[in-house]
Amino acid sequence: MVDIIKRFCIAVALGLCIGILFLGTQTAKAEEKRDLLEVEDQTFIWPTVGEISDTFGTREGKHFGIDIAALEGTPVVSAANGVVSKSYVSDTYGEVVFIEHDNGFETVYAHLHDRFVSEGQAIEGGSQLGTVGNTGRSQGNHLHFEVHDGSWNIDKSEAIDPLFVLSEKDSDRYAAWSLDSAYENDTEDSEAVYVMSNLPGMGKAGDQERNVVGQPVKMVESGDTLWSISQLYDTSIEELMEWNGLSDESIIVGDLLIVDQ
Ligand SMILES: [Zn+2]
């Protein structure tokens, strides 16, 4: 008899434990969801226009931002209103700008070619803070962009995936492109300009084509030839030339080439 009571007690205790565990996970899930919703309420302007060449959480979880490949000199804008918290040269980030936003977030813009803002300066969302470059620990021109739900710290523990909070509105997506940029007047690098201006979606904000992010484009790297790129993307030199309006086979490092249609 005592044995039966013992067993009964153990069963009840186990049941309680499982119940508590179950409730616990439900609550945790609800909280996660609420946090995500709060984050999603924040929308940021795209800091530049280009091809996403690397996403958040890659490199064994050590990539705490997204990379947006674009030509050197492409405008980089502040993702929201805020104050410049840092603007300096770092060994790893290169020419880098940090902005603290009114909502408590901090954003980071790294590997810049030029910086146009200094510490303590107030800046509006969509205002230019610099240009895309290849400074610091970087291979090829791109913007490394981080969003922190709180202040930046060395462990980057507050970093979130920028794609969660970047606005889907075209006016926010192409803010950097709608700035008066050097492209139209740039004669030194006319081939690159030609390719850039012919990319689908690379028109001014408000144009109908809108798919540059996620378009099958490749940035030309040193050592690339039209032949090697055609092999990589299972296409032909002729098609690449046609899609990109090239009159001969010469390509320039940093060019963005359409590689599929
Ligand atoms: Zn990066």
From TrEMBL:
<dbReference type="InterPro" id="IPR036779">
    <property type="entry name" value="LysM_dom_sf"/>
</dbReference>
<dbReference type="GO" id="GO:0004222">
    <property type="term" value="F:metalloendopeptidase activity"/>
</dbReference>
<dbReference type="InterPro" id="IPR016047">
    <property type="entry name" value="M23ase_b-sheet_dom"/>
</dbReference>
<dbReference type="InterPro" id="IPR018392">
    <property type="entry name" value="LysM"/>
</dbReference>
<protein>
    <recommendedName>
        <fullName>LysM domain-containing protein</fullName>
    </recommendedName>
</protein>
<dbReference type="InterPro" id="IPR050570">
    <property type="entry name" value="Cell_wall_metabolism_enzyme"/>
</dbReference>
<feature type="domain" description="LysM">
    <location>
        <begin position="216"/>
        <end position="259"/>
    </location>
</feature>
<dbReference type="Pfam" id="PF01551">
    <property type="entry name" value="Peptidase_M23"/>
</dbReference>
<dbReference type="Pfam" id="PF01476">
    <property type="entry name" value="LysM"/>
</dbReference>
<dbReference type="InterPro" id="IPR011055">
    <property type="entry name" value="Dup_hybrid_motif"/>
</dbReference>
